[in-house]
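The material for today's practical consists of a large collection of protein records. Backbone structure tokens are a discrete shorthand for how the chain folds in space. An example says more than a description, so a record of this kind follows:
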Amino acid sequence: MSSENTPDTVSAGGPSADPATPDAAPVRFDTRIAVLLRDDLETWQRLNVTAFLVSGLGSAVPEVVGEPYEDADGTPYLPMFRQPVLVFEGSKETLTAAHTRALTRGLPRALFTADLFATGNDRDNRAAVRAVPAADLDLVGLAVYGPRHGVDKVLKGARMHP
């Protein structure tokens, strides 16, 4: 995965790069941000779960967030992740195994359970997760961040989202 077009690299000549160095080598990351979604979710659920999960990583692991953006007119925009987010899918069993491996490795993680589709606010979301032991969580999504090889091992058995 060393070519410029892989998910693990960002072209240094991209839109946020210095235009004076358009031929600079791609930036390769030693870390990985990954989201694992259960493969039986509806499209709207996949998008919603992904958005919620990555917001958890961005708030708890500040080094994943880059600098703010600004267009040529000087209009400011919020910062975003400094590296790609890889999205995977897998069965309920794959998610359970990945969750266990993420816990064992101590990687920063965010989770989304099926119960959260029935709640309407943050307080009830947290209560729904708190009510269930880790081994019994009905996981539909998991986000992890850490060293590339560690995240790869957590995601063993998952496949890239189409």
Notes: The first helix runs from residue 43 to 60. The helical segments are 43-60, 92-105, 122-130, 148-154. Residues 1-6, 9-20 have pLDDT under 50 and may be disordered.
